[in-house]
Amino acid sequence: MRNSRSFIILILAVALLSSGCVKKVKVNELLPVNQPVPLDDLVRRINAYSQINTLAMQVENVVVRNYFTGKKTEAEQFPAAAGLLRFQRPENTFMRVTFIGKKIADMASDGKEFQLSIFYPDDKRHFIHGSNLKDIERLNAAEVQQSKESEISRAGGLINMRPQHITDAVLIKPISADERHDVFREEVHVSEPDTQPGKSKRLVEKTYYVVYVIERGEGGQAKLRRKFWFDRTLPDTPLTRQQVFENGEGRLASDVKYTAWFTLPNSNRQWPGVITIDRRNDGYQLELELAKDSIETNIDLPPGLFHIDNTEHLEDVDLDAPRKDLRPKKAAEDAPAGKQPASRNANHR
Prior knowledge:
The chain has a single domain, classed as Lipoprotein localisation LolA/LolB/LppX (outer membrane lipoprotein receptor (LolB), chain A), CATH 2.50.20. It has helices at residues 2-18, 39-47, 141-146, 150-155, 163-170, 329-334; strands at 29-30, 54-66, 76-77, 81-88, 92-99, 102-110, 113-118, 126-131, 181-193, 203-216, 222-231, 239-246, 251-263, 270-279, 284-290, 296-297, 315-318. It starts with a helix and ends in a 15-residue tail after the last helix. Strand 6 (102-110) and strand 7 (113-118) form a beta hairpin. It has a 17-stranded mixed β-sheet that branches. The protein is elongated and about 90 Å long. By secondary structure, the protein is mainly β.
């Protein structure tokens, strides 16, 4: 007991003697948070998207960045254009992008096959098509740059674009309530630039709920599938980010950010005004700024909408056709006889 008192006295003495050396340092302001939201309520918000069977909207600005055809820290960015989007569950998608009356691109999918027509710029005019459900190779930046197939090297990251990337970002899939899926959350602090006017150079500390979706495979192996971020510092604690992971190895497939939330006309449903789909590993980013008064849910859509043909005879890229070997020559020669290297990202969708 005497030793404990002596130690406390020593600490107090050191503190008093060193008080003249104490100084104030700047720290990031911790923004105030809203009232706590139970995990079940956060899950219900995510699953509420399953109530939407069809969705139609206009997009005021569509911005596409092509990472693979850029250089080092630069990416090619297509000119901002207007767009039209149509969705029908489970996986039907149609998108049209135009710029001052000029068609930039069309994309369609019926859940089994997809087509992407790129009309502009002229050196990237392609008709890219393939199977949604088939295990399709993903091409990485090095393979695109080394490819001797001109249509691949010019299309760049757009060769990896799939309609379901957009569908899964806009019509969020519900969280399965079964024994194979676990859901939990944590609260995290993140340093970010202050979004208040004139204070962008200042950093603040923001608080998020992060909801994890874990899937258990054979043998009970746990695989991270999705993460949902809810901003506790904004009104109503909105969903601001969805991250999708693949292959059960924690590899980030899609990083989707939701901003500028508003209330849909004639509804109490909240909807993001801007959706940014970043698939850096696939080589592209897609930003959609929505026309707020154009969004309609659960309406009838015309048959045949979710398929397009190559009517303009664009250069054909069949992603289901056998591709040329893009591996370095030595690696191809060293492959054991009778064995083929494993397909890149066999579970990619």
